[in-house]
Amino acid sequence: MEQKIAIIDGDNFSDLETFYDEVDRVLTKDINVKTGHNLDAFNDILCGDFGVFSYNETLKLIWTNFTKSRKNLGDELISVLTGIIRKHDHIEFQIID
Description:
Barnase, Chain D, single chain, three-stranded parallel β-sheet, alpha/beta, 19% strand
């Protein structure tokens, strides 16, 4: 089976709320519930089963325009978000500027 790839694009958001919108756009599909826009919900989405990839299925997650994201969100929040991503062993995480 081919590895699924998802791309979070830093050009598509400028604050935490629009970051969550980008996560919803990229990592959820055809679900009948609104996802929470908070760190716990972000962690849950990364587990899978929100329409794009199955629970704990291997996923390559690419974050493009990362420097812009760091500038917009700040170092502390970026550290929290990337820490949440990196704790998921089934996600191969790549940063691209």
